[in-house]
Amino acid sequence: MENRKREQRIFFRVSEQELALIAEKMKLTGIQNREAYLKKMAIDGHILNLDLSDMQKMIYLLGNAANNLNQIAKRVNISQNIYKDDIEDLRENYNKLWETSKTILNRLLKIQL
Description:
- There is one protein chain.
- 69% of the residues lie in helices and 0% in strands.
- The longest helix is centred in the middle third of the chain and has 27 residues, at 53-79.
- α3 packs antiparallel against α4.
- The protein is built from four helices and no strands.
- The protein is mostly helical.
- The chain has two domains: 1-49; 53-109.
């Protein structure tokens, strides 16, 4: 026990309802260790848990759009022609990318600390 960095203890009591609320909030943040959760809340006052699945989708769409653009550029350099389908495909990819970007930005704007 001599080598512990944290020597001070804090004890407090909660009701059953308060304990249930703490457990619910822990579940929402994905933190399973109650001591870690309570310490984080006491020091920082808030925990922000972000769902980054939309960002992963956007990264996928960006890679897709870049690959399509490269393929079209190669074809144009070889054949000196660009096809209407290629342009439409690019337009669809960029529209998906734009919609995903707007979704992410709207979700970020709703975050209030």
